[in-house]
Amino acid sequence: MASAREEILQRIRDARVPAAAPVVRGYHQTGPGGVELFAERVADYRAIVHTVTSVPDALKALTGKRIVAPQGVPDEWLIDGVTWLREPLSIEDLDRADGVLTGCAVAIADTGTIVLDGGEAQGRRALTLLPDYHLCVVRVDQIAASVPEALRRLESTRPLTFISGPSATSDIELNRVEGVHGPRTLEVLIV
Asked: At 157, which CATH number?
């Protein structure tokens, strides 16, 4: 019996799978997307959008707040007058924070979506899901025109979080409720 089993397993090991033919995807790869389209689309989701030249100047509105700043947030963003909360933070600490400041991995103009991958200045997912306010800094060079273009820029093995506006859901009567599964307020600084 063992020899029959071994014979079958050996045939499986020796089997040659023909190379798959390349799959041609006819997706729209690039387009007229850019800063203006991204700003318009992310605002359609009820996010607050600002185009700025200086991140520290734009952050002055956070004075007096307790804001989570993940590892990798540039030192020049950590302005005086804000209590910056740094990791490690418990779930309770995150829940008591006034908000979180992050960067992003990429942004998508066609859909008004921000993508986080847990990389530099983004932190772990809980940082952007528990505080009621998320301020995300998006550099112009991070804006991709389309989803396929954005996916080409991302590492597929990283934990990806796609954010299209503040967290929201609707009940059966289509009454919109914000902040159920994440921040009630999303503010985006385009630099």
From this structure: 3.40.50.10420
